[in-house]
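Weekly modeling sync, notes
Attendees: S.R. (lead), two postdocs, one rotation student

Agenda item 3: backlog of single-chain predictions. S.R. asked that every request posted to the team notebook include the full sequence so nobody has to chase files. The rotation student volunteered to paste the first one in as an example of the format we agreed on. Action items at the bottom.

Example entry:
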Amino acid sequence: MRHLKQPNFKIFVINLAHSTERWQHVSQQLDRLHLPYERLDAINGKSLTEAEINAVFSTQLADKYFHYRLTRGEIACYLSHLKAWQKIVDEGLDFGIILEDDINISSLFVEVPKRIAAFKAKWDFIKLAAPFKQQPYDVIESDTRLHVVSYRRKPPMGACAQAVSFSGARQLLKLRPPVFRPVDVDLQWSYELGIRTFGLVPYTVDNTHQHSSDIFAVENRHHARKSAWRRMKHQIALYFDNKKTRRKTPRL
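Predicted structure, as returned to the notebook:
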């Protein structure tokens, strides 16, 4: 029987300092599973200065490649994930599991680190949740409880739970900032980003769909001026990005 090397990984939970109720909710779930985790202080969009925003956000790229300019909350959310990716690289981890704090975690989540460590293919990013629209997939590696999948179209939206490898974190940090799309949308562009994206099903994490959005609390993105034409161009371009990704994805 092959003995697997113990993975060098950490679980990071992105949490704003004032979101104490969320922190209590997520930490209690992880404590029940006896999993070690680390709180990562989230970036607060309200505290970002104009100079800080201009240093990381590109209005030119947003106007060209997305259909609206990101709100302060969306920029801060992206910066919080960048902070987590930097921790993975700085600490030389095999991978990090990055969680947002407005989630529900299933008991099967305790198996996730072992399953990721056993995955034979090279990977950069593994989705652990699909809190909004499901996307069709094919199973490429399976065990009795958790199955690694590749997506037939695009990865599902939502950044509430994912694993990021050392190579994936390093690649993402090479390309971002500048940021110009919300982090969960940006991570659907696997070919453009040069990352190998998979999923782990059944999904072991879901958004609570109950807590009010910290992003909207800063500035409601529904109030942002949007372009229907650019949105359509964005969707077409994403379709072709994922066709290219699909051609590169290993299959059984």
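Discussion: group reviewed the output briefly. The chain has one domain: 9-248.
Action items: rotation student to repeat for the remaining queue; S.R. to check formatting next week.
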